[in-house]
Write a structure and sequence with these properties.
Blueprint (H helix, E strand, L loop, with lengths): L1 H6 L1 H10 L4 E3 L14 E3 L41 H7 L24 E5 L14 H11 L3 E4 L17 E2 L5 H10 L2 E4 L3 H8 L4 E4 L13 E3 L34 H4 L3 H13 L5
Helix pairs in contact: 4-8
Length: 285
């Protein structure tokens, strides 16, 4: 979800710049197709004839040196720039941030109370907020301020050893429309480096991003970032090739007492302070 939402605005930008027809394929066209009606959306494996050019957008690595990006696909090392710039560079467009639109249907406000959504899960343990009591303490603080707290991530309690905060509520179901509705109407969203965080930004929900595995400039600039302290190892995503088949990927500290220290070192107080910053700036009521 994150890559799809991050990169889709540049297809429209490319089309507008060159006045051409754009045919696009993703694994989840339903997330974006009606939001970008000028683009023809097709499914994976569908043949398109008489095309002028074909571009694959993504991270590509050199076959002879797997840790290095493929120089035939990247003019710049994509790990050293914001994620959105990957698509811009590959399409020959100016590298500027563009908020995506989504075509996921949202309904009216699901509950009358003020509430906050949490996105605690992602696709690798390195992306998680690994502080042992972090989510529980933040949830307790939010509830003490009168907010209900909902888990927007669909994974079950204990998924890959990660417990849900005890005092948070689950959504009534995890259909994508329900999740989007809850995020859309939330007072705020607090999440890690995941697709739900990109969705929250696309839906213009005030967003707090907790991440140690990436540097603050990697994701959208408008989120309030909570990053690792300067005295610990951090930003492995921006220095190494992530190994998608290794859930415990931590290239610098794996197997030591310092594994995942980047996010373990982020305290609940820092996350609460970031949330308070959103209140002080008038983004959260």
């Amino acid at each position: 979800m994150g890559d799809t939402l991050a990169w889709v605005p540049y297809l429209e930008n490319f089309q507008q710049r060159w006045g051409c027809k754009v045919v696009a394929c993703s694994h989840h066209n339903e997330w974006v197709e009606s939001a970008y009606p000028s683009i023809e959306w097709i499914g994976p494996g569908v043949e398109v004839k008489n095309i002028y050019a074909l571009t694959n957008i993504g991270f590509f690595y050199d076959e002879s040196e797997e840790s290095l990006p493929d120089p035939t696909k990247h003019s710049h090392d994509p790990r050293t720039e914001p994620l959105q710039w990957t698509a811009a560079r590959q399409l020959g467009l100016p590298p500027v941030e563009i908020r995506p639109r989504v075509s996921i249907s949202t309904r009216g406000r699901p509950v009358d109370d003020h509430y906050v959504c949490l996105g605690i899960h992602s696709t690798s343990q390195a992306k998680y907020w690994n502080h042992p009591s972090g989510w529980d303490e933040v949830t307790s603080w939010l509830k003490s301020r009168g907010y209900r707290v909902f888990i927007a991530s669909r994974e079950e309690d204990g998924f890959m050893g990660n417990r849900l905060p005890a005092d948070a509520e689950r959504l009534p179901d995890y259909q994508i429309e329900t999740t989007a509705t809850f995020i859309c109407h939330a007072d705020a969203f607090i999440g890690v480096g995941s697709g739900l965080t990109w969705m929250a930004w696309a839906l213009e929900t005030p967003t707090v991003l907790v991440s140690g595995f990436s540097h603050p400039w990697t994701e959208m600039s408008e989120a309030v970032k909570v990053s690792a302290p300067n005295n610990v190892c951090a930003g492995s995503f921006n220095r190494h090739r992530i190994q998608a088949n290794d859930w415990q990927w931590c290239p610098d500290r794996k197997g030591t007492s310092r594994q995942f220290e980047c996010s373990r070192s982020i305290t609940p107080e820092k996350v609460i302070s970031a949330f308070q910053q959103c209140i002080d700036e008038g983004h959260i009521s």
